[in-house]
Design brief:
There is one protein chain. Helices cover 27% and strands 11% of the residues. The protein has 207 residues and is α/β, with parallel strands linked by helices. The chain has 2 domains: 10-96, 2-Layer Sandwich (Uridine Diphospho-n-acetylenolpyruvylglucosamine Reductase, domain 2), CATH 3.30.43.10; 112-206, 2-Layer Sandwich (Uridine Diphospho-n-acetylenolpyruvylglucosamine Reductase, domain 3), CATH 3.30.465. The strands form 2 sheets. It has a 4-stranded mixed sheet with strand order 1-2-4-3. Strands 5-7-6 form a 3-stranded antiparallel sheet. Helix 1 packs antiparallel against helix 3.
């Protein structure tokens, strides 16, 4: 059953619009519909609007506006989840993180790279492999799944276990509380530092 979206005040809409780049607060019902349901079509509802911040400063600004106006929100990555965790259920504001596209240089010595939450797993894999390293996780939705969601999902694949004996360590830049991969999911924080492993060929030789 569809849940009616919340009505945002003119003041809230103006503040949200000011927090974002022009054109990245979506209120048109037809445009919002593309964000409102998960890939299965089983979960979702109407959103009051969709905010598309470009960086963590804009994410934090959106969250401040929502806190000031008591607007519930749901963060959304590539929307490839299967359990409804990234879609509205009661008319929330969707905060799409797909524009957070920072992709830093690979630190060879530390085997780490800093990436934005909107970078896809496939983009990160290509970036790491160009430096002779690899990401310790893989799954079929790699072309659309974003790092912001992937790092918090309980996805334990064969690739992950080849590189790491324990939980997936993301460099712990956010305080490391909560999920099994050692990352905090607070909005507006610094981009995650991803710990990379050796190339797939090296992993296979170890077996």
């Amino acid at each position: 059953m569809s849940v009616p979206s919340l009505e945002l005040s003119h003041e809230a809409l103006a503040e949200l619009g000011a927090a974002l780049d022009p054109g990245h607060l979506i209120v048109d019902r037809e445009l919002c519909a593309a964000f409102e349901h998960d890939i299965t079509g089983r979960f979702g509802a109407a959103a009051c609007a969709v905010a598309r911040p470009a960086d963590t400063a804009q994410v934090a600004a959106v969250v401040r506006v929502c806190a000031g106006h008591a607007i519930p929100l749901v963060p959304q990555g590539g929307n490839t989840g299967l359990v409804g965790g990234g879609v509205p259920r009661s008319g929330e504001l969707i905060v799409s993180l797909c524009r957070l596209q920072q992709l830093g240089d690979v630190d060879d010595a530390a085997a780490q790279v800093i990436v934005g939450a909107g970078v896809t797993l496939e983009q990160l894999q290509r970036h790491a492999r160009a430096a002779g390293l690899d990401v310790g996780i893989d799954h079929g939705a790699r072309s659309a799944a974003t790092i912001g969601g992937t790092k918090t999902a309980p996805t334990a694949t064969a690739t992950l276990t080849q590189y790491l004996a324990g939980p997936y360590d993301l460099g712990r830049p956010w305080g490391c509380k909560g999920d099994q991969f050692g990352a905090d999911t607070r909005l507006g924080s610094n981009p995650p530092t991803i710990v990379l492993g050796g190339p797939p060929e090296a992993s296979k030789r170890k077996k």
